[in-house]
Structure prediction request, 240 residues.
Amino acid sequence: MDAHPQMPNATTAPFRPADLPPMVTVVDTQGETLRDIYMEDIIKRFPNFKPRDDVDIWLLGPGNLYNGPEEGIRAWIDNKLAMHVSHMGSEETVRRVASEFLSPVTEVTGRKPNPGMEGPPIFVCAIPNSEYSMRLFPGAFKTREYCLDFVKSDTGEPENSPFEFELWALLGPSLYPYSMRLLSLEQSSGIRPEDIVPGAETFVLRDGMVCLLKRPGHRTVRFKVPVRVKETASAGEARG
Prediction:
């Protein structure tokens, strides 16, 4: 029989035993522009760097592989800009593309909450016999994506795959389920584990998904991802 973390109450429990229905959480689906989201990421990683324009924000935003010192950012960006100009034909075109890309209001999957943030729809649960916890936080609501990462239990700081494990999803009808191993967003994009920015690794799940965390020498942790509903008149009924 699978083990699952024991939590004091439903408000703080991120993971539900698989024989119970998933917790329902109510979310505000107001989006932000990609420019806002990219700037927040840049400020976290490079607090002393001031982007000159949209090109700087576009090239330095989430997903880039720059991990050098802040004093080397401008030279790195200028080199990337020259490559894009060569490909697109002119600097004016690159600047237009960057501005158009960053302007839409959108939802982003993989945007991590600040350490210490907890409570619906962000949940943290200690992993038995470990100094780490699993953290669940919302991804894009439209595609029903939830995210998972690993954090230090005492500090809340995220870490990349801090121990040997496999994360699996149980799929299909309940009578004939099948399982699928889940890779992180970064590994699925072809980034080698050693090249992932420290603390950036993220796994993408789905609302209501049943998952298994398997570790050698430990019992399997089985949990169900929360389900979100929009903040509407009917949301009150979902809470109850």
